[in-house]
Design brief:
By secondary structure, this protein is of the alpha+beta class. It is built from four helices and eight strands. The protein starts with a helix and ends in a 35-residue tail after the last strand.
């Protein structure tokens, strides 16, 4: 009975990867903006929309996409009257995958379990903080502010409000 228990325990240890146990196949990404209530659109590397929402929020994203293939994302943050900001979230090998498998998962964790589950990857950055800047070409101009823009960037209906500076 003792031998069977040891064999079962060894089989369990060898059938798991450290990153799969500790980190999992998904990662929570926090997204904030200044000002709040900006629109969020997250697309994966194939251009598929995986999330739509508003700031502040947290999104659970998959870290892997097949055997030894991490997932990357593009986060677009936009709000009327402000310039849109685009942030790239990239996957890279995680610490639990690289070092944790020495202790827990071994070769099976390194080459089979963690690469198959996607748990070998870590998404970076894990927090997106977007500082949105006011966009003068939206038609909401403050008459007390000085704006320097290209004429082509100014909507035609606003060009008659511009003042030439010599």
């Amino acid at each position: 009975m003792r031998i069977i228990s040891v064999i079962v325990l060894m089989a369990l240890l060898l059938s798991t990867g450290c990153a799969s146990i500790i980190a999992g196949k998904n990662q929570l990404i926090g997204i904030n903006s200044n000002p709040d209530s900006a629109q969020i659109l997250i697309k994966d590397e194939y251009g598929q929309v995986v999330f739509k929402g508003t700031t502040p929020t947290s999104v659970l994203l998959q870290k892997g996409d097949g055997y030894f293939h991490g997932k990357d994302y593009t986060v677009e943050i936009a709000k009327d009257g402000y310039s849109k900001q685009i942030v790239t979230i990239k996957s890279g090998p995680g610490g639990w995958y690289l070092l944790g498998n020495i202790v827990f998962g071994g070769l099976i964790g390194w080459f089979i379990v963690d690469p198959l589950t996607g748990a070998m990857w870590t998404l970076s950055p894990d927090k997106v903080n977007a500082e949105l800047s006011k966009n003068p070409s939206t038609g909401k101009l403050n008459p007390n502010d000085l704006y320097i823009v290209l004429l082509d960037d100014v909507p035609a209906n606003l060009r008659d409000q511009m003042v030439r500076v010599k």
